[in-house]
DNA sequence: AAGTTTTTTTCGAATTTCGTAAAAAAAGGA
DNA sequence: TCCTTTTTTTACGAAATTCGAAAAAAACTT
C-alpha cells in the first residue's frame, strides 16, 4: 500500500463532509478529472483506507441511553470476551486497553431498563468477565470520524 | 419529526453496509420506486436522522496510537473543557459521563510522542482539568455505527 | 363520504458514473 | 541524460443514476 499523498487526503477531507458528493464535483473542486478521483477512490477503498457509511443519530433512533463500560476480564479470556461483546448490535465499540480496564466498550440502548438488562443478563452470561464499571453518558459533545488532516497537524 | 417506519429502517440498514449504493438499487431491493427512496432519504437527512460520511481506518492514516482518556474537571468548568477538547481534530469523541470520570474522550495520534505531547502540553493548558487517566488502546475489535436494527432487537 | 394533505409513482431531461483507450507523467535502469 | 517501463491522468461515448415536477394513490380529517 502506497503512502497517501496530498490529493488523497483532500479527497478524504471532502468526503468527510459529505460522503455522497459526486466524483465530478470533487474533481471540479480539486482541479483534476473525474477519472482521477474515481481511480483514487477505487484504490483507497481497495486498500481499506476508508469505507462509505452513514452516521445515524442514536437519539433520533430512540437510543436515548448511551454508556461506556470498562471491563475486567479473567486472565486468558479477554479475546473471547471481546468477540462475544462485538456480536451485539447495541455495542458500537470494543477495544482492548492498557490501564485500569482490560476492555472498554461503548453501547446504545433505548432505555435504562435495556441497559440494566444488558449488564445483568447479557454480560453476566459471558464467561470471563470479572467486573464491569458502567459510566452513563450525560451529554455528547463530539462524535466523528473527521480526523483526516491536511498534513499531520493532529494537535490543532 | 415523524417516527421512523419499517421502510426507513430498511433504507438505513442498507446504507449502513454501503453509504454510496444507488437509490435505484435500494428501490429495487425494497420493491418501491426510486422516487420514494429519494424522498425518504431527503426527509431523513433533513430531520438529522443520519449523515453520509466516510469511516477512515486510523491505522491506514498513520494514526497508530489510540487512547481513551478519562478526565476529572473542576466543578463548573466541565462544559468549557469539553468544548475546548472538541476543537482538536485528534479527538474524535467527547462525552460527559456519570461515574468515575466527568469527561471521557477518545483520540488518535501518530505516535506515543504525539500522545505524550497532547497530554502534557495541550491538556495541561486547558483550565479546569484536574486529572487525566490515559488508557492506551492495544487492539480494536469493533468500531461501527451499525446500530440500526429492524425492530428494537438491540440486545442480540 | 367528500375534501384535504401526504406519499408514491412516473417519466423525460440533466447529470453522473463507468469502461476503456490514448496520452501524459513519473519512475527506474543503463 | 536518454530510453524503457510502469503508473497515473485524461478523454469521451455509452450506460446508469439522479433530479424536477406532475399525476396518481393513499392516508387523514371533519
TrEMBL record, chains A, B:
GO terms for cellular component: cytosol. Keywords: DNA-binding, Transcription, Transcription regulation. Gene3D superfamilies: 3.30.70.920, Winged helix-like DNA-binding domain superfamily/Winged helix DNA-binding domain (1.10.10.10). It comes from the Bacteria. Transmembrane segments: none annotated. Pfam families: AsnC_trans_reg, HTH_AsnC-type. GO terms for biological process: response to amino acid. GO terms for molecular function: sequence-specific DNA binding. Residues 4-64 form the HTH asnC-type domain. The keyword DNA-binding applies. This is Transcriptional regulator. It comes from Brevibacillus panacihumi W25.
Amino acid at each position: 500500500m502506497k503512502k497517501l499523498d496530498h490529493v488523497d487526503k483532500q479527497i478524504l477531507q471532502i468526503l468527510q463532509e459529505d460522503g455522497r458528493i459526486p466524483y465530478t464535483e470533487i474533481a471540479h473542486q480539486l482541479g483534476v478529472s473525474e477519472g482521477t478521483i474515481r481511480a483514487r477512490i477505487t484504490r483507497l477503498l481497495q486498500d481499506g483506507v476508508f469505507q462509505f457509511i452513514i452516521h445515524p443519530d442514536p437519539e433520533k433512533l430512540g437510543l436515548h441511553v448511551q454508556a461506556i463500560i470498562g471491563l475486567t476480564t479473567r486472565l486468558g479470556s479477554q479475546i473471547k470476551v471481546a468477540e462475544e461483546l462485538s456480536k451485539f448490535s447495541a455495542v458500537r465499540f470494543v477495544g482492548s486497553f492498557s490501564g485500569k480496564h482490560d476492555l472498554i466498550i461503548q453501547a446504545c440502548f433505548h432505555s435504562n431498563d435495556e441497559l440494566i438488562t444488558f449488564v445483568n443478563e447479557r454480560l453476566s452470561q459471558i464467561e470471563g468477565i470479572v467486573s464491569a464499571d458502567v459510566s452513563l453518558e450525560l451529554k455528547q459533545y463530539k462524535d466523528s470520524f473527521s480526523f483526516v488532516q491536511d498534513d499531520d497537524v493532529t494537535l490543532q
